[in-house]
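Take a careful look at the sequence and tokenised backbone pasted below. I need to know what the token row says about the fold.
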Amino acid sequence: MNTILVTGGAGFIGGCFLRHAIAEWGCRAVNFDKLTYAGNLDSLASIVSDPRYFFVEGDVTDGAAVGRAIADHQPTAIVHFAAESHVDRSIDGPAEFVRTNVQGTFELLDAARRYFAGLSPRRRAEFRFLHVSTDEVYGSLGPDGLFTESSPYDPSSPYSASKAASDHFARAYHRTYGLPVLVTNCSNNYGPCQFPEKLIPLMILNALEGKPLPIYGDGQNVRDWLFVEDHCRALRLVLERGRPGETYNIGGNCERTNIDVVETICRVVDELRPDLPHAPCRSLIKHVPDRPGHDRRYAIDAGKIRRELGWTPEHDFDSGIRLTVRWYLENRRWVARVSSGAYRRERLGLLREVA
């Protein structure tokens, strides 16, 4: 039975990946997670009692703890999700993004390098290190064009700069040490179990509760949206059939402006909850000052992963949003528990002079 060590497995995408790895792929899976504000073990309730699931509480910046987890569980693959990921938080406090995303990736790569060097030839041939990254490292597109795997890096925020640095470290460990690294850069994910600081869950929950729906600037910023389960299927294919040293862009082929995303959510909420006293939800939309350094448009060319690995997304934006809204409606206990911490859905990422 293959063993996968997953960092950040209590987070949004990592948790989805773990649920699939245990329930559908028959893997033995180790969740290495620090349990920060966005880490929620409730999202793994369906697998926590499975004997193939193991949890190790730890920080990726702690090289000794990472090394022990790898030595204890002898993984055939490491999948690295653990990261600070919210752009607005990176504006408020960039140091934590450097620590977790850059130093943490280095510590994990270095522990993997030492482990890999001690494996038998057969196990070395099987081992993979999958580094999961973002399309934000490429910066902003104009009205035309798509990000490809060869697009130059041009990060705009402390978050995207820290992820760009981690990507470079991952590739350097492949080229320098021969570590069989794969890198993926994905577009904006959405779906069940996403922490409500991100656009889609924030808008869903505020719409249900009659709270303002804040739109940054003119609302015309464009993102390519990817349903999280489609992303995790792509990651499995990259892990199983991708070529070490290669990068694969993963996108949902679902470009939408932010205002269109919010209006779509409003239509679905109005349909599923026609009893809400503040309907129509669109009346809650409020334009607010734009985010500093807000990239105008992202869009992914996923042709490489389609041609080489046969992956295409199963969900379009309308079907994915409907599934997502319904999940938040049916899982209010999860929402209540994840909202009981310090985050109160307040605006983050405002520079002092903007505030």
Observations:
- The two ends are 53 Å apart (CA to CA).
- The chain has a mean pLDDT of 94.
